[in-house]
Design brief:
Strand content of chain A: over 45%
Number of helices of chain A: 1
Helix content of chain A: 10-25%
Distance between the termini of chain B: 43 Å
Shape of chain B: elongated
Number of strands of chain A: 9
Helix content of chain B: over 70%
Strand order of the largest sheet of chain A: 3-9-8-5-6
Structural class of chain B: mainly alpha
Order of helices and strands of chain B: HHHHHHH
Shape of chain A: elongated
Number of helices of chain B: 7
Radius of gyration of chain B: 16 Å
Largest sheet of chain B: none
Number of strands of chain B: 0
Largest sheet of chain A: 5 strands, mixed
Strand content of chain B: under 5%
Distance between the termini of chain A: 39 Å
Order of helices and strands of chain A: HEEEEEEEEE
Oligomer: heterodimer
Largest interface: A-B, 10 and 13 residues
Radius of gyration of chain A: 19 Å
């Protein structure tokens, strides 16, 4: 029956609309031994891209052990967020470089 | 006179006395080619110290620290070389660089006689003192004297990273006690 079919189609469309079409990529820069932005927010499923503009190697290392991304000099590194929560992270080589990532479900 | 300034810095490095660095302020400023030479020499000294530590150190924190020094100081010096090339500046040897090198080779020889925990402790203690002195010289002499903006900016980045090294060295030194 066409009526039933269109109901199914609209239901499918509604579900599709409710789920975000694209996960976002959030860029965080490390330059001159500073993390910018220092406080970033993202959602589970988003990708964080750390861009190291320094001539020094850095890392984005979670204090709680959730992630440890190596960022060679003048290179980027990415991480897909899998878990909600607020994570403080730092650079293992330059522990004065500290920042926070707020990950929403 | 630059010679007087160099002698004061050299003496300050030997004695780690802030009073002498103060006195040096009254003397003539080093030129950019001289500053570039001093900064590069200071980097080479710490790279050589780190290479020695990589061979001799036993403690894993000391080994990791030496590795960090090697990586960062090589990166800064690489950047410094690229900058002097771009600016078409020839680094100029001077009494401060000579005094730094002389003192560093004496220290290398002294540390070479030590082994195990005694080496680890002496290396880290020297790294604390060395970074403190170099940071003091950068802050009060080299950065204020630099006239080229890019050179000044590189020295400022250097200072920031070396202050981190000093804290790191102090932390490792405290752990070794």
């Amino acid at each position: 029956m066409p009526g039933r079919l269109s109901a199914i189609v609209s239901a499918v469309l509604l579900v599709a609309l409710a789920v975000p079409a694209h996960a976002a990529t959030i860029e965080i820069t490390m330059e001159n031994l500073e993390v910018s932005p220092k406080d970033a927010s993202a959602k589970v499923g988003d990708t964080i891209e750390w861009i190291n503009k320094d001539v020094f190697a850095h890392t984005a290392t979670a204090g709680n052990g959730d992630f440890d991304v190596n960022l060679p000099a003048k290179k980027s590194g990415t991480l897909v967020l899998k878990k909600a929560g607020t994570v403080d992270y730092y650079c293992r080589y330059h522990p004065n470089m500290k920042a926070t990532l707020k990950i929403e479900p | 006179m630059f010679v007087r300034w160099s002698a004061a810095i050299a003496a300050a490095i030997l004695l780690s006395s802030p009073a002498l660095l103060q006195d040096a302020r009254a003397a003539d400023k080093p030129t950019d080619p001289q500053i570039a030479h001093i900064a590069y020499t200071a980097g080479v000294i710490d790279i050589n110290a780190a290479k020695q530590a990589q061979k001799k150190a036993k403690n894993k924190d000391v080994k990791a620290f030496a590795e960090d020094m090697l990586r960062d100081h090589e990166a800064v010096n690489k950047q410094a070389l690229a900058l002097v090339k771009k600016l078409n500046v020839t680094p100029e040897d001077n009494d401060t660089s000579k005094a730094l090198s002389k003192q560093a080779s004496d220290k290398l020889a002294e540390l070479d006689k030590l082994n195990g925990a005694a080496f680890d402790k002496a290396y880290v203690a020297n790294e604390v003192a060395y970074h403190k002195t170099v940071n003091g010289a950068l802050e009060t002499q080299l950065i204020p004297s630099a006239s080229n903006a890019e050179l000044k900016s590189l020295l400022q980045t250097g200072l920031k990273i070396f202050q981190g090294h000093q804290q790191h060295a102090e932390h490792v030194a405290a752990e070794l006690k």
